[in-house]
From TrEMBL:
This is Methyltransferase domain-containing protein. Residues 47-137 form the Methyltransferase domain. It comes from Nonomuraea maheshkhaliensis.
Length: 266
């Protein structure tokens, strides 16, 4: 479960109910959905949505015919996800999943690695995902880019605040994220090259790593693009064209690692 009370307080504020449904967070949502639709086994495959929050992804997966079980350590999230049509939700920890071996066709970790600061805990969570899926099943994990916090501080104008340069410098060195936003977000940021080693140490094949937002999340008018159906599709297509470019991976706010590999560019 969540050991850091600051992380629990952050999620108990209820922000996860809207984070990916409003504003520029929708770009992360649409791009995550885009990659998963291309890599998941077809419905009605069973999907474990580990750390699935309030069910923003579980909702569309269930609507698409997937058999979805959401597991999350925050009681508020489980309560909110449990009312979604076709979604089963219960409390649980990504490092000790309450499911039998090989119980699912796919396991999604679209949030847990954000808050596991110790590498051993992240590898343990990935190992549990591997155990929970059938042989050859899909494991997908989202990570925050190590460089996202500094980008965000410049975008939001918070970098000039007292102490922020030192905080952002520490994030670049250690991965510990302490956001300047009033919501108090704390997390862990991956370097793109870290991710493959964590997967392989968990006994998983090398993943494909996708840059979800590219640099587009930093654009001032990204909300306008997302508000317009036609422009949103153009934006998603642009991000898709750049998603596997190694030189741009770290610019994305979020990365999505997926295995077994469906090689980028094929």
């Amino acid at each position: 479960m969540i050991e850091d009370p600051r992380v629990l307080r952050y999620y108990e504020q209820g922000g996860e109910l809207t984070r990916l449904r409003e504003g520029r967070g929708r770009l992360e949502f649409w791009r995550t959905r885009d990659v998963l639709l291309r890599t998941l086994p077809p419905a009605p495959a069973k999907v474990l949505d580990v750390g699935g929050g309030t069910g923003v992804h579980a909702a569309w997966l269930a609507a698409a015919g997937y058999d979805v079980e959401l597991i999350d350590p925050v009681p508020l999230h489980v309560e909110e996800a449990a009312v979604l049509p076709g979604v089963r939700a219960r409390l649980g920890d990504a490092r000790d999943l309450p499911v039998p071996e090989g119980a699912a066709d796919a396991a999604l970790l679209l949030g847990p690695l954000y808050h596991l600061h110790e590498r051993a805990d992240r590898v343990r969570a990935l190992s549990e995902a591997r155990r929970a899926v059938r042989p050859g099943g899909l494991v997908a994990s989202a990570c925050i880019s190590r460089y996202a916090a500094l980008h965000d501080s410049v975008r939001l104008g918070t970098l000039p605040r007292e102490g922020r340069v030192e905080v952002e410098g520490r994030t670049l060195e250690t991965g510990e994220i302490i956001a300047a936003r009033e919501d108090g977000f704390r997390g862990y940021g991956h370097r793109p090259e870290e991710i493959a080693a964590e997967f392989t140490d968990a006994g998983l094949p090398l993943p494909d790593v996708y840059g979800l937002e590219g640099a587009f999340w930093l654009y001032g008018d990204v909300d306008d693009w997302l508000d317009d159906d036609g422009r949103r599709e153009l934006l998603l297509d642009a991000a898709r064209r750049l998603e596997c470019e190694p030189s741009l991976l770290g610019v994305s706010g979020h990365l999505l690692a997926v295995t077994p590999a469906d090689p980028c560019g094929d």
